[in-house]
Every structure is written in C-alpha cells, then in structure tokens.
Amino acid sequence: MLNIVNFFTFQFAWITTVYFAAIGRPYVGVLITLIWIFCHLYAAGTHRLAELHLLLTAAVIGYLIDSMQVLSGSLSFPLQTQLGGPSPLWMVALWVNFAATLNYSMKWLHGHLFLAALLGAIAGSFAYYAGSRLGAIEIKGKPALIMIAIQWLIATPLLVWFAAAQPWVNRAPLTSGNSENK
Fold first, then answer.
1. How far, in Å, CA of 158 to CA of 151, rounded?
2. How far apart are the first and last CA of the chain?
3. How many Cβ atoms from other residues are within 10 Å of residue 76's Cβ?
4. Whole-model pTM above 0.70?
5. What value does the mean pLDDT take over residues 8-14?
6. CB distance 149 to 124 below 8 Å
7. For the chain, domain boundaries
8. Quick check: 98 and 6 in contact, CB under 8 A?
9. How far is CA 123 from CA 84, 128, 133, 145, 153, in A?
10. Strand ranges inside the chain, DSSP E
C-alpha cells in the first residue's frame, strides 16, 4: 500500500508542480512538493536521514544537470516560471520528487541499472516534453531533447544505484505497520 501511495503522490506532485509553474505560480508546486517530502520523510521512520541524503543528492545532481542545459542554451524557462536559477527551484523539486520513489514504488529498478537507464532516457525526456507542452519549459529543438534523454540515461541508474546502496534498503521492507517507522 505504501508503494501505491508513493507512486500516486509522486504523480500528483509532478503534475501540480509543472502546472503551477506554467501558470506563473511556481512557488505553489514547490510548496506542495515540500509537504509531500515531509510526509515521505516521516514515513521513512528510522531511515529518515539516509532517505534525506538521497533526496539532497538528487537535488544537487538535478540542479547541476539542468543548469548546464540552461547555460548551454538547450533549455530555457519562460519568465513566469522562473524561481531561482539557472535551473529554477521547482525543477529541483521535481528531481527530489523523483528520488522519493527510488526506495519505494520504483524499488524494482534496484539491480537493474540498464533498465533504469532505458526508462530514464524515455520517461525523462517525455516528462520534459510534456512540461514544454504545458508551457513550463522551452526545449530548443531535437538536439536538446536528445541531450535531455542522455542526461536521464546517466542520472537515473546513478540515482537508482545510490538509492540501493543505502544501508537500510535491503532490510525488512517499510510498511505502515513496521515498528521501524515509529
């Protein structure tokens, strides 16, 4: 049940973050994602610090990669979506949102790094494309979309590997009734 809630909360946070960025209120999506992440960390129980480390690692990686894309001219953000920069804060929130799935609803990717790379390249570029169709991001042509696919081809298995390397991950699974969550 926790994995199902994790997956749907991830989807809700992605949609609301991108939507509110597109309509010029990027802080709303960041706030929604922060609330979700606080709940996520609460549910992580005694594994909270390890999970926080994963989320912060994803935030740094995402900020650096997306900022490089912006500085290279491959991506840009419409004025109404900007909140920080070069990569706006709401984009960093999306990376944290994604990382929150890696030990829960996306845990099945652990040990399957090739599959993680393939999924990252496809789903990552699709997510950016969807964001561009909503007006939250501007992708500068097919070469930029290919660069996005490459960034996710590399970042996804890296983050999956990092998530799987957390010392608590291979222990008993987290459930709402698990005493480790208290």
1. 11
2. 17
3. 16
4. yes
5. 96
6. yes
7. 2-169
8. no
9. 25, 9, 15, 12, 10
10. 75-76, 138-139
